[in-house]
Write a structure and sequence with these properties.
alpha+beta; 51% helix
């Protein structure tokens, strides 16, 4: 089953692209991903300007990755051509938490001029309106806060408006389903007083809140406030705590393996301390360390499920539910958090995994 799930996500989310020097915009074109049309320059010294960068030699970007690189500055170059059929207004789109600042320059014939500037403020969707007549060159000056992840796309206004409406439907369906699951488990908790249902409510809410933040809805509700930039740290710790509690209770580890409780406490403590140091120092080393302990905690819960697979019936449901949510979440965060290859997964893919996980555990209640 696990192999089939892995194959499914890789098959439908991997992107195979052909490279070319420039991108031709046509009203009939369906191509939106433009990474394979970009050239890049790694500004190691972080001192290049719009004047000096024009003298540097750029390299082909394509699907190149920079695993382990953090807090770096890059320049990206793109040439766009319009066909006579293309009349729509279009936008550059970015959905990532990796970018600290981005400045877009456009060559208007007499030289490059600044057209757009973005400074990180908690907003996830960056929309850059672009307008030109036939052909134009663009330079993107990008400072990355975390990993090197630049998932830039291009879309016309009509499709962008359509996508907004689709997203609203997806938000309603997903968060509505989360509410139903929470209410069902709350009902069972009031009837039985078993902590199993309470801990699963916490786990469900922690996953939903992470997706709520990834969807940019926290920014939509609260606007440009400083604490939004670090809310992911709190949510990741909340997920780790709720996952450990649910695993402990659902597999009855206090009875079968009571010492594992101390392992969970140690992981949570190390995760919390690392994130606290990150908040105090703003050092990416502590952030990466906190994410590492978070990952260890998530994977350990999965391996504990494997250990009890033959002993407890519920371990089978736990293993299946954890497998789906962890595969989708890991494949989604690998590019943005660690600079690994982008498999094309979106928050919607993460939501699908979360829904499957909730359905598995709802069915498992009968056991």
């Amino acid at each position: 089953m696990l192999r089939k799930l892995l194959f499914f996500f890789f098959f439908f989310n991997s992107i195979v692209l052909l490279s070319q020097n420039d991108l031709v915009l046509d009203s009939l074109s369906t191509e939106t991903t433009i990474k394979t049309h970009l050239d890049y320059y790694h500004d190691v010294s972080k001192k290049e300007t719009i004047k000096t960068i024009q003298e540097r030699e750029f390299s082909f970007y394509g699907n190149k990755t920079f695993p382990g690189e953090q807090a770096q500055k890059f320049w990206f170059k793109l040439q766009l051509n319009k066909s006579e059929k293309y009349k729509d207004e279009f936008f550059f789109l970015l959905n990532t938490v990796s970018i600290d600042t981005i400045v877009v320059y456009q060559n208007i014939g007499s030289g490059y001029e600044k057209r757009y500037e973005f400074i990180k403020n908690g907003e996830k969707d960056i929309e850059i309106p672009i307008n030109f007549i036939t052909t134009s060159d663009f330079l993107f000056e990008v400072s990355f806060a975390k990993s090197i992840y630049f998932p830039i796309k291009i879309e016309n206004k009509q499709n962008l408006d359509k996508q907004y409406k689709i997203n609203l439907v997806i938000y309603g369906l997903y968060y509505g389903f989360v509410l139903v699951v929470v209410l069902i488990n709350l009902f069972f908790y009031r009837q039985t007083k078993e902590r199993f249902f309470l801990y699963y409510i916490l786990l469900t809410l922690s996953i939903a809140l992470i997706l709520f933040e990834l969807d940019g809805l926290v920014y939509f509700l609260f606007g440009d406030v400083k604490w939004i930039l670090h809310v992911d740290v709190v949510l990741h710790t909340f997920l780790l705590v709720s996952l450990m509690l649910f695993t402990l209770e659902s597999l009855q580890l206090n009875i079968y393996k009571p010492k594992l409780k101390w392992f969970g406490i140690a992981i949570i403590a190390l995760n919390t301390v690392s994130f606290l140091f990150y908040l105090l120092t703003n050092s990416l080393f502590w952030y990466s360390l906190g994410e590492l302990f978070n990952l260890i905690g998530l994977l350990s819960s999965w391996f504990i499920g494997i250990f009890f697979l033959k002993r407890l019936v519920f371990a089978r449901f736990l293993l299946l539910g954890y497998s789906v949510i962890q595969i989708t979440s890991l494949l989604y965060v690998l590019p943005s958090e660690f600079g690994m290859i982008d498999l094309g997964l979106t928050p919607t893919s993460f939501k699908i995994g979360s829904v499957i996980e909730m359905l598995v555990f709802l069915y498992a209640i009968s056991y």
